[in-house]
Write a structure and sequence with these properties.
Keywords: DNA-binding, Transcription, Transcription regulation. This is MarR family transcriptional regulator. By secondary structure, the protein is mainly α. It is 61% helix and 8% strand. It contains seven helices and three strands. The chain has a three-stranded antiparallel beta sheet.
Length: 159
């Protein structure tokens, strides 16, 4: 229950607090599953994005993933070292690169997607298909109403 302006509300009174708790719990569970493959959650997002969008620029990938170019560049470097992503220079001064999954990366993504599915199922199994869809619709509505623009992130759905 939220109190008057003279007394601060309790942390547990805020829906955002509980959403963050759930998000953290889901994230850490998924991170543990991915760790078995030496992949972070952020790297998974990059790999999954490149699975659908081969031969894209660093700028486009950063937009789709929702991170800045320098952060993505560091992630890409780690994925290149793991032979999961290839980086090809497309101009002579090396400022523009195209990113693609290697054959190893392409083979790994479906395996990691199964882990993502398993993690989702673990957390949301108590919800019926209808309740899951309602929750998803509510989350999308809240995001959209509050200015989150799926188009700038290149996504047409929340995963």
């Amino acid at each position: 229950m939220i109190m008057s302006n003279n007394y601060p509300s309790n942390l547990e009174d805020h829906l955002g607090y509980w959403l963050r708790c759930l998000s953290n719990y889901i994230h850490h569970s998924f991170a543990a599953l991915l760790a078995e493959h030496d992949i972070s959650v952020a790297q998974w997002v990059v790999l999954r994005t490149l699975y659908d969008k081969q031969n894209i620029s660093l700028n486009e990938a950063a937009r789709l993933v929702g991170v800045d170019n320098s952060s993505l560049s560091r992630m890409i470097e780690r994925l290149v070292q793991k032979n999961l992503v290839s980086r090809t220079n497309i101009d002579k001064d090396r400022r523009s690169v195209q990113l693609s999954l290697t054959s190893t990366g392409k083979a790994l993504v479906p395996k990691l997607a199964q882990l993502a599915d398993k993690n989702d199922e673990s957390f949301f199994q108590i919800l019926s298909t209808q309740k899951r869809q309602e929750l998803l619709d509510t989350i999308k509505q809240l995001l959209e109403t509050n200015g989150w623009d799926q188009l700038t992130r290149g996504k047409d759905r929340i995963e």
